[in-house]
Design a protein that fits this description.
413 residues; globular; 11 helices; 13% strand; alpha/beta; 12 strands
Length: 413
């Protein structure tokens, strides 16, 4: 390792001890929550069994959904390998809840790029807009909910669904903490009690000791190749929340009249159960890796968000490079320290669902798994690398130090 980087690392890591202790405490609390859900639902070896075809009477699939409902303090859950991604689950939820002439309101500004064609922000003949669903968005102001504007809009309009994206996506804003949700949700419910509050919870699960359903959200969506899959789930996503809303989502994923009763597990149950079992610990490792990255890069005079000592809402660490060369070099450095395809060189290119060229570094065991250490970013100002994940802190540390070394070598050549 470069001596300069090694010296900085040795200065930085001792400062993180108290932060790491707080992360350990959150992990313990969430681990307790998970194991109690396993106990309550009497998980047995029989639940590892698989179904094919229609998937009738899949008791393993059903117990997994009961575990998710228990963990999230929700009435019901839909946890399926038929979901291709978190974006697919979000799209399914929006199409399940909204009807022609309904109004969808985002109160965290423009959603993540992959939802633009779903909503109709970008034209697509299959979008919500093409079915007559109306859309409005209210951006954050100074990284806070624009409370007055939101409540005034709700008083003047019949809003069917409010969408809140907790993680920042490819934006420059801060991610949304549980505390911020806890402040705005009761005020929304007071003004507009029938409005459905939908949370995009991707990257945020187990970062805190509470989840959005516990503080009044109606429905919550996330991916299993992010936090909740624990690096074990090979694909899939979840939706948790009110029973009537979960039924609508199930009938959108499968078909009306069958809903949750169908959908074969195809041998996935063991991996889903192992994933949720390991998830609190894997999220802990991802958080520690993010904190170290933030402290190390800030010491090297790069802009980072969040700062290493800030409270976190998700596992994502931003590094703001302000030039595309450093963004590309850092992502290539992450790839070079990965366990899979370390010899490959990622380059920016077109990606489905994105307007800009995107560079993606992810030498992962599961394609696109961002709970494994990955780093990506669109080639647009201010050239931000979005780093997330790491199955263990030790591997995360090795990889990040290698990436920083690669970055500095590129700059000096």
């Amino acid at each position: 390792m470069n001596q300069k980087i090694n010296d900085i690392y040795k200065q930085v890591e001792p400062k993180l001890k108290n932060i790491f202790q707080d992360i350990d405490y959150i992990c313990e609390q969430n681990s307790q929550k998970v194991i109690e859900a396993f106990w309550q639902n009497h998980v047995s070896e029989i639940h590892f069994n698989s179904t094919t075809g229609y998937g009738y009477n899949d008791i393993g699939r059903d117990v997994i959904e009961n575990i998710y409902a228990s963990i999230f303090k929700a009435e019901d859950a839909l946890v399926r390998n038929q979901f291709i991604s978190g974006s697919h689950a979000l799209s399914t939820t929006l199409f399940a809840l909204l009807r022609p002439n309904d109004l969808l309101l985002s109160i965290t500004g423009t959603p993540y790029d992959t939802l633009h064609e779903v909503i109709g922000i970008k034209d697509n003949p299959s979008s919500l807009k093409s079915f007559g669903v109306q859309y409005h968005e209210i951006p954050l102001k100074n990284n806070e909910f624009a409370e007055d504007e939101i409540l005034t809009f709700l008083a003047q309009n019949n809003v069917k669904v409010i969408e809140i994206q907790r993680s920042k996506g490819y934006s420059t804003r801060k991610s949304i903490t549980i505390e911020k949700l806890q402040t705005i949700i009761p005020k929304i419910k007071k003004i507009s009690p029938n409005t459905i509050i939908m949370i995009d919870n991707c990257y945020c699960e187990f970062v805190d000791t509470k989840e959005p359903i516990e503080i009044g959200a109606d429905i919550c969506v996330g991916s299993l190749i992010k936090n909740m899959g624990g690096g074990m789930a090979p694909n899939g996503a979840y939706i948790v929340g009110r029973k009537d809303l979960i039924q609508l989502c199930a009938e959108r994923l499968t078909l009306p009249g069958e809903g949750k009763e169908v959908g074969p597990s195809l041998g996935i149950n063991r991996d889903f159960l192992k994933g949720i079992y390991f998830a609190p610990s894997v999220v802990k490792s991802a958080l520690k890796t993010a904190v170290l990255t933030s402290a190390l890069l800030e010491e090297l005079d790069y802009d980072v968000e969040p700062k290493y000592q800030e409270k976190r809402a998700d596992i994502v660490q931003n590094i703001i490079f302000h030039n595309k060369e450093d963004l590309i070099s850092y992502c290539q450095g992450i790839q070079s320290g990965s366990p899979i395809d370390a010899h490959s060189l990622p380059i920016p290119d077109d990606m489905p669902g994105y307007d800009d060229h995107v560079i993606m570094a992810a030498g992962t065991f599961i394609q696109g798994s961002s709970i494994e250490l990955s780093c990506d970013g669109p080639l647009r100002e201010p050239y931000i690398a979005y780093q997330q994940g790491s199955l263990t802190y030790e591997y995360g540390k090795i990889n990040v130090l290698k990436a920083v070394e690669y970055l500095l070598e590129k700059k000096n050549n």
